[in-house]
Specification:
Layout: E1 3-7, H1 18-26, E2 30-34, H2 52-64, E3 71-76, H3 80-89, E4 94-100, H4 111-118, H5 122-129, H6 131-134, E5 140-141, H7 146-152, H8 160-169, E6 173-174, H9 176-179, E7 193-198, H10 206-215, E8 228-233, H11 239-242, H12 244-255, E9 259-261, E10 269-271
Parallel strand pairs: 1-2, 1-3, 3-4, 4-7, 7-8
Antiparallel strand pairs: 5-6, 9-10
Length: 274
């Protein structure tokens, strides 16, 4: 039986996966939505010392306390940062890492480091880095208001009721989780991986990634590895709210090794793992 550990992005907890997790279970899989310290119904557990290492340990404990021999570890947005380090610490328990509309964490970099150096859009870069100045008591970044979710959150296709729930349940996010650099040993470098791009709003897509690989950018060449598979979802950044059924289907396909393969100088091809 395929088992998924689902790690959400900033300000939200495991509740955001409710519909997708239910659909995965109906398909015969197991699903473990993670709620990281300080988020969701664990918001009261955060403090000034809550940082990326705290969230990594949350996921290591989740992995250690499941009976499944291996998990498909899904990281959405910010959630990919603790996810990749948890995979690095427990590679023998991870069947695949799925990057769900997420960046590519780099050893020695914090999320803010990557935003500062690699975010091309200046307005988005400054808005994200400005979260440090907005932090209450020096460590809690307030959640976006409903209007801010609409303006900045790429919530395309999210129903009004789900968007209201997102704004109501979003929690302050611990600043230290975004400023602490991650450390990778390389133990998980050989794990199969998948990428899912949410393309509504002009975000990254499989075709755009192929162009980056063809450009010779050294940061992305490893993505042409045949163990990597890619999918495009024509929805906004919150597919677990806007397209939970489609997302569940794609996650099951990713777990089975499906997806488009990329290679330098070639058009992506749709295959299954052999």
């Amino acid at each position: 039986m395929t088992a998924f550990a689902l790690v959400s992005g900033g300000h939200v907890g495991g509740w955001v996966w409710r519909e997708t997790a239910a659909r995965l279970r109906r398909a015969g899989a197991e699903a473990y939505p993670a709620t990281l310290t300080g988020l969701g119904d664990r918001r009261h557990l955060a403090g000034p010392g809550t940082d990326l290492d705290t969230h990594i340990e949350d996921l290591v404990q989740l992995i250690d306390h499941t009976d499944d021999p291996a998990l498909v570890l899904v990281g959405h947005c910010y959630g990919i940062y603790p996810a990749v380090v948890a995979a690095d610490r427990r590679p023998e328990r991870i069947a695949r890492v799925v990057y769900l509309d997420a960046p590519l964490p780099q050893d020695g970099y914090s999320m803010f480091d990557q935003v500062r150096e690699q975010m091309a859009d200046a307005a988005t870069r400054e808005r994200m880095l400005g979260q440090a100045e907005r932090a209450e008591d020096g460590w809690r970044v307030p959640p976006p208001s409903l209007e801010e979710w609409r303006r900045w959150g790429n919530v395309a296709d999210v129903p009004a009721e789900a968007l209201a729930r997102l704004a109501r349940l979003a929690a302050p996010h611990p600043l230290g989780t975004m400023t602490r650099p991650l450390r990778l040993s390389g133990a998980a470098a050989g794990l199969p991986a998948s990428g899912i791009f949410c393309t509504a709003g002009g975000g990254m897509s499989t075709a755009a990634l192929q162009r980056l690989i063809d450009s010779g950018d050294p940061r992305v060449q490893w993505l042409a590895d045949p163990r990597m598979g890619f999918f495009d979802l024509a929805t906004g950044h919150w597919p677990m709210l806007s397209a939970p059924g489609e997302l569940a289907d794609v996650l099951l396909r990713a777990a089975a090794g499906e997806g488009q393969r990329l290679s330098a100088g070639a058009t992506p091809r749709s295959v299954q793992d052999r």
